[in-house]
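Operator note (shift B, R.M.): manual run for Cell division protein FtsL requested after the automated queue skipped it. Running by hand, logging everything below so the morning shift can see what happened. Input copied straight from the record, untouched. If output looks odd, do not overwrite the archive copy; leave it for review.
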Amino acid sequence: MARNTIKNKELSEEVQEAMSDALEEKVEETEDFLKSIFSQKKLSTYLVAKNLPFVAFLALLGLLYISNRHLAENTVRRIDRLGKEVKELSWDYKSLNAELMKLTTQTEIAKRADTLGLKERTEPPIKLQVVKEVKQ
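Run finished. Output pasted below as returned.
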């Protein structure tokens, strides 16, 4: 089913050979590159020892990145938890404030005072004046 075509046009044998040669060259280049990286000369103990501080530095940066991310996520969780707590306390404050306002109205105070046997005054208060006697 696989035909050698590009955009539904048959390829000539010359083009097919050129393409297969180019592909083989790329495969050989990749194999040579991988062999050069993992050869005994390149991966010697000297190179490992020479690059060890850099590898340790990268490991340290990785640990710092992970710990910073962890602290940031914990901070976000704490902020969310405190935000929910603030909303809940705000609701409590508003309900208690409304209840207090209701309880401090004159009619509510009169009802509570009536249970204690106190009566609401219907006449205005009287101003007392002290008369000083002049001594002679």
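Quick read of the result: Residues 45-103 form the longest helix (59 residues). The beta strands are 5-6, 9-10.
Leaving this for review. - R.M.
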